[in-house]
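In response to the reviewer comment on reproducibility (Comment 2.3), we provide here a single inverse folding case reported in full, input and output, so that an independent group could reproduce the run without further information from us. The structure tokens appear first.
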């Protein structure tokens, strides 16, 4: 379930909001009835970055050995 907090709540209870973000995976910050920011635990960010790196490395590997894969596919 998405969690939203007001910017005022972030200012008044930063530690509590951080705990909510850790527990829920993210917290959206609302100001004047509009989302203005998202707080994401660093572990989530690192995981996304690692997945992106793995995909990039896989594509580079396939591109580098495309001729070998084509030969094996015959």
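Designed residues, in position order:
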């Amino acid at each position: 379930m998405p969690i939203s907090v007001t910017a005022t709540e972030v200012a008044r209870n930063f530690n509590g909001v951080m705990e909510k973000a850790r527990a829920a995976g993210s917290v959206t910050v609302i100001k004047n009835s509009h989302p203005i920011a998202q707080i994401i635990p660093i572990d989530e960010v690192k995981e996304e970055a690692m997945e992106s790196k793995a995909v990039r490395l896989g594509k580079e590997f396939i591109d580098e050995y495309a001729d070998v894969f084509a030969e094996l596919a015959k």
